[in-house]
Amino acid sequence: MTDPELAPAPAVSGSVVAFEHVTKGYGNGPPAVTDLSLEIRAGEICVLVGPSGCGKTTTMKMVNRLVEPTSGRVTIDGADVASLPAVDLRRRIGYVIQQVGLFPHLTVAENVAVVPRLLGWGEARITERVEELLELVGLHPGAYRSRYPAALSGGERQRVGVARAMAADPSVLLMDEPFGAVDPIRRERLQNEFLRLQARLRKTIVFVTHDVDEAIKMADRIAILQVGGVLAQYDSPDRLLAAPTSPFVEHFVGADRGLKRLSLARVRDLPLEKPVTVVVGESFAAARQRLPEGTTWALVTDAQQRPLGWIPTNDLAGEGTVDAAMATPGSTLLQPESTLRDALSAMLVSSVQQGVVVDEHDAVLGVISVAAISETLQDGAGSQQP
Amino acid sequence: MDFLAEVAAWFTDPASWSGRDAISARVGEHLALSGFSLLAGLAIALPLGLFIGHTRRWAGAVVGITNVGRAVPSVGILGLALPITLQLGWGIGVPPTLLALTVLAIPPIVLNAYVGIRDVEPELVEAARGVGMRESQVLRRVELPIALPIILAGVRTASIQVIATATLGAILSTGGLGRYIVDGFARQDYPRMFGGALLVMTLALTSEVLFALAQRAAVSPGLRGASVRVPETGAGLAQ
Amino acid sequence: MTEEDPFFRLDWVFHNLDMLAQRTGEHVALTLIGVGFGILIAFPVTLLIHRRRRLIGPVLGLAGILYAIPSLALFGLLIPVTGIGLLTAEIALISYTLLILIRNGLAGLDGVAPEIVEAATGMGHTRIQQLWRVQLPLAVPVIIAGVRIATVTTIGLVAVTALIGQGGLGFVIITIGINRFFPTAILVGVGLSVLLAVLADRGLVLAERALTPWARAGSGEG
Predict the structure, then answer these.
(1) Are the Cβ atoms of C124 and A88 closer than 8 angstroms?
(2) Of the candidates A205, A345, B224, C208, which lies 20 to 30 Å from A268 by C-alpha distance?
(3) Searching chain A, which residue's CA lies closest to the CA of residue C138?
């Protein structure tokens, strides 16, 4: 999920990875991967997801030739991966597995330095790179450089694993359930940090997971595979949720895909409506004059445009001045970055069925309604770039 | 290959089969020495090992002593048995050798019995107690059958130890096949020496094969499907 | 134990310190040669069977046979071929170390966690690099455990070589102690032998600690 707020997009350092009619069979049994063709664009995260037996890990391993295809080919930037010696190929591709597989007999720094050393880098360059990478994954080099994996927590090991995979600055990263072995809270943190990292580095990442929620969160595009390595659908998360192309996909993404889509869109993606506002200190008469016909509720704001609550227009009859105490506080205020899911959640609790959106100074930007949100869902195109 | 012909000659010579030094006699002596001490060792070591394994008491001491025991040369045990049996008035020759062999047989059997019983999964023992078995029944019906392969491995090690040291018993003027080797060496009668060595080797390897088969047979059919390697815990005392 | 006939003659020990020291030195030398060559042979064999698994059965079987043959019998079989001397003694001693060294070496290599091997391969190590940089270092504890057992066993076996004319503490135990019926010598010989074994064992434990600095790292919160 690329965050459009980060502008301009940093240079892409990834390669194009393509599968061309790749099949993997084992003996007489059914194939693990069947005639798979898909292209992963440079700098994108492609998540391979599916039920167990769908060949997602096998597919990923065909990129660095830990598994060789029975037929078809895998290419990186157009070149067949089989044209290089496997060992050289693997040194150019980052590889992260679920159990991490840190070498217990090497320090953190030595672990990260493994591939650079295999490539024959000079000591000074290695040291510098290790420092850089540890900082990048959020581990203070001074504290972590000389530690052994046994002394690290699960989350720390995961980060070292990512740093190690990126040490030689590969253009392609393979990640097999990399955050699977940590608890959900840590996992979310690691996912967010990784996404931020990716936003900067823009590598091409092949990411395998069995968790469809993780797929939706992490992917630029998702490839859903069925048992036997059959590609069911290959789309952006939003398109996948909005328009599943088969009952299998529909079932796989879950019955709550509507809600899932709401997590993908943000308030700022919707056009905001201008609310009817009255300001504290205004007279009822002046307010009544500005109110359009048929308005039942008005938003009370202070002089700085900060919302204080809602007031029924009937209360504005007769003489009087608008006072803060007359406003019924609405639900939690929304920001442009809030997801539609959070917005809907907030609005459902409010009696007004409207969400007030404020900027960083808490001044009113507009309101959105439940109706507007459900219209977005119906749209089908969604607000995410494909 | 004249030498091998001489060895063959020694084997086929009728003189080799008569008298005190007859092959049959020596083999018999060796088997008797080994057999008796192994049984005696079992009688002492097995109950001890089972007890320690089941109750976990004195385990540290047992393991410690066994480890030290591994470092004591068996000739040393033989040598020390001699003055002891003399003090006790048991005489020289067979008694010190029997004593030494029995002592040597004990550590591997105790160790393996202890480890075998100890390593039975606690859930199984608990389940057995849960259905109302008495402690002795738990031991007999649950722990022992499961630990049997490991215990047999210990007896196997002890057996090799005993056969080897019985061979060395020749230096104490005991009988047995070691006599051929020691006497042959002393008299430079190398065919005799070699023949004796062959006999000892055959005896040792036969013991190995028999015990290996016994171990395999002792693994409960229920466990056989699983990848249970027949364990060989070697106490590895010096031969 | 009567006063006229003491079991243990301490004065004899003091009078013969030189001889005891010399014999102990011989004992150490014989052990070092035996274990040293044992490792030299076991090491490549272990690497070979680690790679070609089908050889494991035959190799361990052969080593097992050598291990089961009593030392005196092995001497008896070797002497007509290799004569009476250091070579015969060492061949026997080396044979006894092979089973345990190879078994432990193999177990050590096989014991490296599969995900570590997978990570090593996936990162682009060649087979040899993987062996030298990852698997062997991690197999050190199990390998050294094997060397410990082999060393202690060998120390005990060296005594028997006295029967074919080699020196070492076996000379003290057998030639002086048993043949001349002198219990003191037996006790001293056995005692020194045990002492050597304990020292060697402890020394190897220290060596293991020195070679595995990562094993002492505490654990994180997991």
Answers:
(1) yes
(2) A205
(3) A105
